[in-house]
Each structure stands twice: as structure tokens, then as C-alpha cells.
Amino acid sequence: MEFVRNCWYVAGWDHEVRADGLLSRKLLGEPIVFYRGQRGQVVALEDRCCHRAAPLSLGRREGDCLRCMYHGLKFDAAGACVEAPGCERVPPKLAVRSYPVVEKDRFVWIWMGDPALADASAILDFPWHDSPDWRMKPGYLHYKANYLLIVDNLLDFSHLAFVHPTTLGTSSNAEARPRIERDARSLRIHWWFLNDQISPNHKRVATFDGPVDRWQLYEWNAPSFMRMDSGSAPAGSGAPEGNRVPQALQFRHTSVQTPETESTTHYWFCQAHNFRLDEEGLTERIYADVVKAFDEDREMIEAQQRTIDATPARPMLPIPADAALNQARWMIEQRLKGEREHARAA
Fold it and tell me: Is-above-0.85 flag for pTM?
């Protein structure tokens, strides 16, 4: 399968790359080993020694370098072999690929394409990950499914009524249609449910009763990043006009997918909240609700992948609810076409 490569992907939460260990992770079909250098900086190298293909993740960190523990070759953070036992002079071809890496907003970001094109200013912002005004618990899931099926799921919230009746959805999700805006980089999708019932997960943490004005306003960036402003407020309190009263439940949601292989995906997420910040156990309860909902999604999406694998020639037929996901797939294909043209020109 062809993946978009000239973009920043998430490789993990910052705590996943420990100061005293090595993290092996496959991204876009490529095995990569991550470690921290002496100053705490993250290094990412191809997880394959160029000598006899031993995994470097079975190696040993030595300062800013990583030593292969099969025949002792040592590689610096740029991937160059700086020591090869038994060699008076290290052949210049002894090297492994290194990847540009940036830490931002508690994510470890990696550039999988042409390193000359890596521009850290293009990395998306997720300020609620470490802001004192928000609380969240970072999460990770592994999917046995292609990442595009997860993107489809995130861009069509009509499924909430059927997949998530006890967590995220209400019956109105099935009938509502969002406003969709598109620019060169992103889709902006606006769902409003006015004078509606509160969703089950919001009800479990709300301090008010009665009908609500509920919103899910999110931005999706190709190939696989979603940032969402969601919440509920007492109906008629002015939420659609931007007035968030003190009782309102306000959340910021992160959903990020990085393909592992054609049929498996890494999924990082969080649900940040800015209310009752010091209430013991609240963040854990919100996190547990999100995990339950995502497990509901995962069960459906992995079953969908199995069906596709069993009947690969059968098409999936569109309905009106597919408007956003169809645009997203078109945007991803445009990125792929651009990379093919760049490769031919090079």
C-alpha cells in the first residue's frame, strides 16, 4: 500500500520513549528504534543493522550512540557507523537511516519522507496536552485495520447513534448533517444538536439536568489527524453564539493515527476537559468512557477489515453521510499524487 510520507506523523507519547530504554515501533511498514541521547533528545534510527540485519532495538545505548549487540557496530544519532570492532577504518557505506524527530505537545513527531522537506513549523498544535487550563490522560490503541477505515469512522458521526448508544451517541446523530468546509490542508466539520438530549457520557459528568445544546466541532488534517472542540451546555444558554456558561462541559479531543502496516494502525488519543480540574477521579472517569467508546469502534472497524479481506473485489457503496470521508480520501489521494510527481522530478 502507498502511504503519504512527506508529512509529520506521531510516533508516540513522550513518556513512551524512556531515558533508560529502547522503543521499537513499525511505522508505515518501516521498523524504527527510538531512544534518548545524553541530553534527553529523542533519536530515531532504522531498526536494522546494515551489517547482518540484526535489530538495533536489541542493542545498547552508549551516550548518544546505539551499539548493535550482534557484532558490536556502533551508530551515532545521524546513523553513521562510528565504530566497527576489527576494522581499522570504518567503511563509509556502513550506516543506517536516521529520521528527523521533534517533541511537541507531549507527542514525539517523526518525518518519514524526504528529510530535506522536513519543516518543524508545519507540525500541528495540540496545546491542551500540557496546558494548566486542561486535564487529560494520554491513551493508545492498536488496531488490526487499515488506517483509512479509522479515518472514515471519525469523519462520519452518524454512526454514533448505532455503535455508541450508551457512550457517545443519541438518536439525533443518525439524522443530522454537519456543515463541512474544506481548504488545501484540512476539513472543518461542524455538528450542532440544539435543544437535544444529552449524550450518555456527558450525562455521567454533568451538574445540570434537562435538554442541552450539544456540539462537535472538529478539524481533520490529512492524512490522519483530528482535533475537536466538543461539549454540552444547558439549552438556550448561548453556546452556538460562543457563550460557554460555567456549567457547560467543554472538551478538547485528539485522535491521531499512524499506519503501522497496510492492515494495522497505531492510534493515539486523549479527551481533555477544562472543568472541575481538581475533582479527584474525574479525568479517569472521562478517560474510561472514551476507551469504552473506542473499543466499540475498534470491534466494528476490525470486523469491517476482516470482511474487506474476505471480499476484496466488492465495492463499498456511498450514502449521503459519507460526504466528509469521501473528501478526506480525495485529499489523501491528492497528497499521494503530489509525492509521485515530486519523486519523478527528482
Answer: yes
> Are 193 and 74 within one domain?
no
Give me the residue label for grid cell 454533568.
Answer: 206
What digits encode the pLDDT tens for the residues 136-160? Answer: 999 999 999 999 999 999 998 778 8
Residue at which a domain ends, from 94, 121, 148: 121
Tell me how far CA of residue 221 lies from CA of 63, 169, 182, 250, 254, in angstroms: 37, 24, 10, 22, 12
228 near 217, Cβ under 8 Å? yes
Would you say residue 27 lies in a domain? yes
Cβ partners under 8 Å of residue 94, min gap 6: 50, 51, 73, 80, 81, 84
**Measured between alpha carbons, how far is 110 from 104 in angstroms, rounded to an integer?**
11
d(CA 47, CA 56): 5
The verdict on 200 and 131 lying in the same domain is yes
